Amino acid sequence: MNKEIVVLIGGPSSGKTTLIEKLKENGHVCYPEVSREVIKEAQEKGIEQLFLEQPLLFSELLLEGRKKQFHLANKEEANVVFLDRGIPDVLAYMHYIGDSYPAFFDEACKEHIYSKIFILPTWKEIYVSDDERYESYEQALLIQEHLVETYRNYGYELIEVPKDTVENRLQFLLQNLNL
Predict the structure, then answer these.
(1) CB neighbours (10 Å) of residue 26?
(2) Who contacts 146 (Cβ-Cβ below 8 Å, separation ≥6)?
(3) CA 97 centroid distance within chain
(4) Alpha carbons 35 and 124: distance in angstroms, whole number
(5) Which long-range contacts (C-beta less than 8 Å, at least 24 apart) are formed by 50-57?
(6) pLDDT digits (tens, 9 = 90+) for 14-53
(7) Residue-level pLDDT at 124
(8) pTM of the model
(9) DSSP character for 27?
(10) Which residues are CB-neighbours of 175 under 8 A, at least 6 positions away?
(11) DSSP code string of 118-172
């Protein structure tokens, strides 16, 4: 069996992290969202919202973190590895804020190919704001649109995970992966 690197994408408050945690509970190899760690490290250095204050630096740190995750996932013994967001997410967010980026961002998306992309729709009923999530629900919807467009531009077919209980979402993923 070939290595499957599966990415969960979606705007803020779509349930990605909850689903990743459920996958881990069930024994699957999962990698967390890189941005929360980048944000926490910046806040510890006194930069409250690195994404807003220095978007290119923030995006470069995310890109490096996601490339590292991709390479680590390829070295895992498990046949299937789940990632909370992928490299094209970085570009989608840059598109969302209307910022440009160097060509190596695009090259990274073309060089690091994922097996499957599952998209979780932004979900108003579970929307929560916290220290790392500053977007409004309306902004989350716009981010979702940029994610869809960006991943499709790189040739990915997106598999939409229905809004449902975490257990049913987990079963949906596993059935679509024949696990």
Answers:
(1) 11
(2) 92, 93, 95, 96
(3) 17
(4) 22
(5) 51/93, 52/134, 55/94, 55/97, 55/99, 56/99, 56/101
(6) 889 899 999 999 999 999 999 878 888 888 888 777 777 7
(7) 72
(8) 0.90
(9) T
(10) none
(11) EEPPP-GGG----SS----HHHHHHHHHHHHHHHHHTTPPEEEPPS--HHHHHHH
